[in-house]
Amino acid sequence: AQTVTQSQPEMSVQEAETVTLSCTYDTSENNYYLFWYKQPPSRQMILVIRQEAYKQQNATENRFSVNFQKAAKSFSLKISDSQLGDTAMYFCARRYGGATNKLIFGTGTLLAVQP
Amino acid sequence: GAVVSQHPSWVICKSGTSVKIECRSLDFQATTMFWYRQFPKQSLMLMATSNEGSKATYEQGVEKDKFLINHASLTLSTLTVTSAHPEDSSFYICSVEKTGEVYGYTFGSGTRLTVV
Questions:
Q1: Most buried among A9, B25, B28, B57, using CB within 10 Å?
Q2: Contact B103/A91, CB-based, under 8 Å?
Q3: pLDDT > 70? residue A99
Q4: Which residues of A touch B113 (CB under 8 A)?
């Protein structure tokens, strides 16, 4: 099965606080890529961060970082110093190999940053 | 990064008519493009993989005769919703991955289709 699971449909965080969004996935591959995308109300998909499975070091992009646990097939996103502009849907995604390299998304987490 | 243009951004059509959505890769040649469908407050569901010069690969449960995909050039893929019905109303998004480079997929701005 090709599944990416996000167990938190909605999350809320106070401005300037830290929040962690969870994601688990299935795979039988050893090397693959994981992504977090943000979808604001405009519905434009925006890449937040990506992680290559063969890299042990967790990826970091400014206020965004991941906790990649390969053995547990877990890929959580931590947002530090939350800002009002971070309010959006967040999707975890996994790139599947083979002939097409398709990207499969999780169910999404709606994050609301409160002032 | 890659630039992807999707057109139209929104369209309203009558039941029984067909609607074509275009996805253009503006700054590189894309042998593969992806089409997604998104219902309100739900995730992006992959419909099909568009392959330049060959038939599209459809995901399980997606009607290939309903959703016609044409990828006639390295910069353009089209999705045609044939004989549209109200249940086809949705948000359709295309995506490309730059060949040989994994930096993250680039997405079009989406098309909101409303069938009345």
A1: B25
A2: no
A3: no
A4: none
The alpha carbon of residue B83 is apart from the nearest alpha carbon of chain A, in Å, by 26
pLDDT at position B101: 60
* CA dihedral sign of residues B32, B41, B90, A47: negative
Contact B43/A52, CB-based, under 8 Å?
Answer: no
Question: A112 at the B interface (CB within 8 A)?
Answer: no
The distance of Cα B43 from the centroid of its chain, to the nearest Å, equals 15
Q: Number of A:B CB contacts under 8 A?
A: 50
What's the confidence (pLDDT) of residue A28?
85
Cα–Cα distance between B84 and A99 in angstroms, integer?
31
Residues of A in contact with B41 (CB under 8 A): 110
Q: How many residues does chain B have?
A: 116
pLDDT at B100: 61
